[in-house]
Amino acid sequence: MRNKKLRMARLEKDMTQEDLADAVGVTRQTIGLIEAGNYNPTLKLCISICKVLDKTLDELFWGGENNE
Amino acid sequence: MNNIKDERIIMEKWKIESNAYKLVLSILVTTVLIQQFFLNSDLKEYAGELIAIILATAYQAYCHVKKGIGTGEKENLKEILTSSVFVSLGGATFLFFIGGMTKPKEIIINVAIIFILNFVVRYVIDFFTKKKQTEIDKLIDED
Question: Taking chain A, what is the end-to-end CA distance rounded to the nearest angstrom?
Answer without folding.
Answer: 5
